[in-house]
Amino acid sequence: MARKLRIQFPGAFYHVINRGNYRRDVFETVGAAQAFEATLAEACDRHGWRIHAYAIMRNHYHLALETPDANLVEGMHWLQSTFATRFNRYRAERGHLFQGRYQAPLVEDAAALLRVVNYIHLNPVRTGLIQPCGAATFRWGSLKRLVKGPRPPWLVAQTVLTQLALEDTAGGWVRYLAYLVALAG
Question: What's the pTM value of the predicted model, to 2 decimals?
Fold first, then answer.
């Protein structure tokens, strides 16, 4: 049976998820997580993507991704194959790094995007890596960069802040963190 075609159009939002093959811990080292984050930055630059949230967990990753151009498939192929090639070359390994096809459900509107972003920011809390009050300290997520910086140009917060009527200020982020703590409770 043929795979379903990906829905792609300019300005689309997706919740992209993939995990290591056989649930393997792909990002168990600092170097692997840094390399994925750097490769993600390259993909954003190459394909004009905007990231609204991301979390790099031990055996999987989440992206709240916006494609100003209809290029999800092309960009994801580049991101995953480039990272897998670099990962395998560095470790002198061969074979599949990721488990099958990545998931990329379409996010319908800004309210749904807010739910996805909150889910991604709270993923390290749900897995027990950090406490809810420390969500902005998770090293391999976008929340730390949004709150404390440095914020790369491809990482955007305005859509989420607008949904909550918050400003991109220290006070606005304090209120957003309190909102996340309440959601986690």
Answer: 0.93
